[in-house]
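Field guide to reading this record: the first block holds the primary sequence, the second block holds the structure written as discrete tokens, and the final block holds curator observations. Each block starts with its own label. This record concerns Signal transduction histidine-protein kinase/phosphatase MprB, catalogued under organism Kribbella albertanoniae.

BLOCK 1 — SEQUENCE
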Amino acid sequence: MVVLLAIIATVPLANFIATSASRTLFLSRSNDADWFATMAEAPLQSGDIANLREMAVRYDDLYNTPVFIVDDNNKVVATSKSGVDTNEPDIAIALGSTLAGRLPAEPPALWPWQSGEMVVARPVANNGRILGAAVLRVPTDDNRLEVRRSLILLLIGLLISIGAIIAGIVRPISRWVINPVKDLDNATHQITRGALDTRVSTDGRAPELRRLGDSFNSMALSLHQARQREREFVADASHQLRTPLTSARIHIEGLSRLSPTARFALSDIDRLGRIVQRLSRLAGSDRPGADAEGNSEEPLDLAQAVKERLVGWKAVYAADDLELIIGDMVPGGVAPELEVDDILDVLLDNASKYGAPPVEVSVTRDGTEVVLSVRDHGLGLGSRDLKKVGERFWRSAHHREMPGTGLGLAIVRSEAARVGGRVVARPPIGGGLVIEVRVPLIDDYEL
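BLOCK 2 — STRUCTURE
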């Protein structure tokens, strides 16, 4: 709309430029035609036109403008160039008006895409009697070129004006419209990262965007409430199940002394207990950084914490005749709330059950991350299964007959996410599987 209004305003200006150039040229040459009309009055009466022809030739040579004089019978009596045809449309119209004593017509505008001469005629009169007419055939090429230059400057000015309007009006309006969309995009990313308490502002927005923001906030609130109910359900279920499971275990322990079959029930009770414990753990670690808010403890040296936990695992692996290799242990500070023991227990337990020895544990640095790696030399996982590692209750098709809950790596992933970390599963060179827990390095940590 702004561009259309600018173009509409420019059209009259362009017409003014072309018309003004035409009028200026017409008035300038009209003065010369009046002079010739005055000079032709006596020769037309006396019939001596030699001097009149000579003046016309000199004028044509000087101004490159042909001149001719006609009598009252429309006959050419003197001309600067031969071959004048008074029947040409423009000349005939001009002579007809002039010899009839009428005012000259308005000259046409000098548009640059047109061509042609301008005909200027003035009557030769004596005491009110028309004796003839002086006619100038004025070239217009130079004037049209000047008009073209003026129109180009006008077009440039139009473009600059449109640019200024866009920068001064349209751009702020666009930002007013686009910024809420950017806020929605950022809020969506926050939601996908687990920050379900994220909301967008709807103040000062366009009505449509305000409704969109309200709908987004309602959706985020519903998700937050659903997740909160899920946590509460899992926490309540875990709490309610823990007591009867403990009681059942006590009773079955007593029966196990009398019946070997009871030992299998005891094993199932223990398995249920582990499932309840892990569900409770997941319910409290869904939101990244939830436990880290307001924490002011000193950073935790991940390598030192891993080495301390490996002391017990060496004995477990040795008892099962499995080889446990301790690789590089590079010191690196991480968030103190990271549950290193739980993470390492899951990774080493999975490696012993689903992988094959030797199992290698290392702690290294990679840029701004501290990496805890556990590698086994088993069959590993296919590319499709690698993408599902860490999903709740997911287990590879090769391992479904083996004991497990499918929650271990989900807990590891949640623990890493709580401190802004991530879990990466990949096939190493030489076969097997590597699980990497990558957590942010705390820069101000001192070795």
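BLOCK 3 — OBSERVATIONS
The longest strand covers residues 129-138.
The chain is about 55% helix and 15% strand.
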